[in-house]
């Protein structure tokens, strides 16, 4: 069993970077400049922005399903980056973070969940996918609760 972790499609976010601060605010978003090399995780590239890089902080529906588990929260995105895909390895943005892994069925209903600390994430993903009823997994930063990435089965 293999898995793939893919960043968000940058296209829907691209127009945000041309908006004024007032236009962003009207969309419950704002422009942010990273003040450290860690702590500003881009959900497109799945890497932390570097100090001095500009990001947009916005409200994002990460689990758009017609179930009680529909979910949304704040995320950061950077301009000019491609959606990264990681197969059978973890993206840099997961490094050193404790993640809440939420396993969902094809119906969008939560099946089970698990906390995974640094060094435990790969094994936890594989364990959750050992259940054939797990269709996909959402990773969230455990401390802040923000959506980190969607994890899919990647089998031939």
TrEMBL record:
Pfam families given for it? DUF1203
InterPro entries with a match to the protein in the record: DUF1203
The superkingdom listed in its UniProt entry is Bacteria
* Protein name, entry field: DUF1203 domain-containing protein
């Amino acid at each position: 069993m293999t898995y793939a972790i893919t960043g968000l499609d940058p296209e829907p976010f691209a127009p945000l970077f041309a908006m004024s601060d007032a236009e962003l605010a009207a969309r419950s978003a704002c422009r942010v400049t990273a003040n450290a090399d860690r702590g500003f995780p881009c959900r497109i590239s799945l890497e932390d922005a570097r100090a001095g890089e500009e990001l947009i902080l916005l409200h994002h529906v990460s689990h758009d399903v017609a179930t009680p588990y529909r979910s949304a929260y704040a995320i950061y995105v950077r301009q000019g980056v491609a959606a990264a895909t990681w197969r059978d390895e973890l993206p840099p943005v997961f490094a050193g973070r404790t993640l809440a892994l939420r396993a969902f069925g094809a119906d969008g209903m939560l099946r089970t969940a698990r906390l995974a600390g640094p060094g435990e994430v790969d094994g936890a993903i594989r364990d959750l996918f050992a259940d054939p009823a797990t269709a996909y997994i959402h990773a969230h930063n455990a401390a802040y609760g923000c959506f980190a990435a969607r994890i899919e089965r990647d089998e031939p």
